[in-house]
Automatic annotation (TrEMBL):
Protein's cellular compartments: Secreted
Pfam families: Stress-antifung
Main subcellular location: secreted
Lineage, top ranks: Eukaryota, Viridiplantae, Streptophyta, Embryophyta, Tracheophyta
Taxonomic superkingdom: Eukaryota
Record CDD domains: Gnk2-like
Keywords: Repeat, Secreted, Signal
UniProt KW Repeat keyword: yes
Signal sequence extent: 1-22
Organism per entry: Carex littledalei
Residue ranges occupied by any Gnk2-homologous domain in the UniProt entry: 23-126, 133-235
Family of this protein: Belongs to the cysteine-rich repeat secretory protein family.
Name of this chain's protein: Cysteine-rich repeat secretory protein 38
GO cellular component entries: extracellular region
Length: 247
């Protein structure tokens, strides 16, 4: 028979392994009306773009890059979670940069979200644009949370609070994870967004997710420029999550 401490450790390890698995959450591709074979110049520029993003992103958790000249110019950005180490960031970016060109081949461009990072590239300059497309992906835990009404109120309060902090507190670099009583939350924006656009993206994403998932014990959603997640269970080690004051 497994002793209680060991049993707790095994459950905790299994949970953390599930939450940080290397598989992508989802990807979005830019629409296109034509297809062609990319030139060698374009491929070279794309490789240089990803190399730059992989090199520079772990330093601050976010970077943008432009490589080449028209008509073979490419734009890209990358970001990592704000609570992971440089090595984990680099590893995730390597995987993401390889997969995005398979998921969204030339001339589409697109973005892929992983648990630990996101990578986007395009032949168009998207840096100062707030995405108007309605692409949205979400996933819910099938089981409901205990005391669903109480859990709903905790989640709404928590997610509204951390969305505001992520958008308007420059020191957190548009990434926040927190716990409030029984609810855990995470929000993140790509840092090419303005403060108001980040807040708008997070709110739209969370409330769309919450409408579809409600009081389920876990929900995650991604759009082109932000992502949100909430859970009745912790995302990472408790010392990585800042405790929100409870009323």
């Amino acid at each position: 028979m497994i002793s209680p401490p060991i049993h707790f450790f095994l459950l905790t390890f299994a949970l953390l392994t599930t939450l940080i698995n290397p598989h992508s959450i989802h990807n979005f591709c830019e629409p296109t009306n034509y297809y062609s074979t990319p030139s060698s110049t374009y491929k070279t520029n794309l490789n240089l773009l990803f190399s730059s993003l992989i090199l520079n992103t772990p330093k601050t958790g976010f970077s943008t890059a432009i490589e080449g000249e028209p008509p073979y110019q490419v734009y890209g950005l990358a970001l990592c979670r704000g609570d992971i180490h440089h090595d984990a960031c680099t590893s995730c970016l390597n995987t993401a940069s390889e997969s995005i060109v398979q998921l969204c081949p030339y001339p589409n461009g697109g973005i892929v979200w992983y648990n630990n990072c996101g990578v986007r590239y395009s032949i168009h300059n998207f840096f100062s644009q707030f995405p108007t497309v309605k692409d949205f992906f979400y996933k819910c835990q099938q089981s409901g949370a205990s005391k669903p009404f109480e859990f709903k109120q905790l989640v709404i309060s928590l997610m509204e609070s951390i969305s505001e902090i992520a958008a308007f507190n420059a020191s957190v670099k548009m990434f926040v994870t927190r716990v409030n009583a029984r609810a855990y939350g995470m929000v993140q924006c790509t840092r090419n967004l303005s403060e108001s656009d980040c807040f708008k993206c997070l709110n739209q994403t969370f409330y769309t997710l919450f409408e579809r998932c409600g009081a389920t014990s876990f929900g995650v959603a991604v759009k082109w420029s932000c992502r949100v997640a909430y859970s009745a269970r912790i995302f990472r080690n408790s010392d990585r999550i800042e405790l929100s004051p409870t009323p």
